[in-house]
Amino acid sequence: MECGKMIITTTNAVQDCEVSEYQGIVFGEVITGINMFKDIGAGLRNLVGGRSKGYEDELTKAREEAINEMGHRAEKLGADAVIGMKMDYEVLGSDNGMLMVTCSGTAVKLR
């Protein structure tokens, strides 16, 4: 890996790079609604078995958006990387119709 690009990793270090400065903790949050048509499809799959492509796609999209948001916040701090990234998922709302994806990590400068 090249040390000049924004790197986001779950590890506490970046291979072949040295942390020169800690910029602080950064977060990415996304809350998304699951629509009625995906709910109907998921309900049918629960009856007959199988995977819910609609929910999987929504989860993938939310995860990518949260990581991108965290990366942009790290860039605003002048960071080259985010280390120690962690991700969490939660279902929200009175009818469990919202999905929240959050991630956090430490923004760092590399040399």
TrEMBL record:
Pfam families: YbjQ_1. InterPro entries: UPF0145_dom_sf, UPF0145_YbjQ-like. It comes from the Bacteria. Transmembrane segments: none annotated. Belongs to the UPF0145 family. This is UPF0145 protein FC84_GL000811. It comes from Lapidilactobacillus dextrinicus DSM 20335. The lineage of its organism: Bacteria, Bacillati, Bacillota, Bacilli, Lactobacillales.
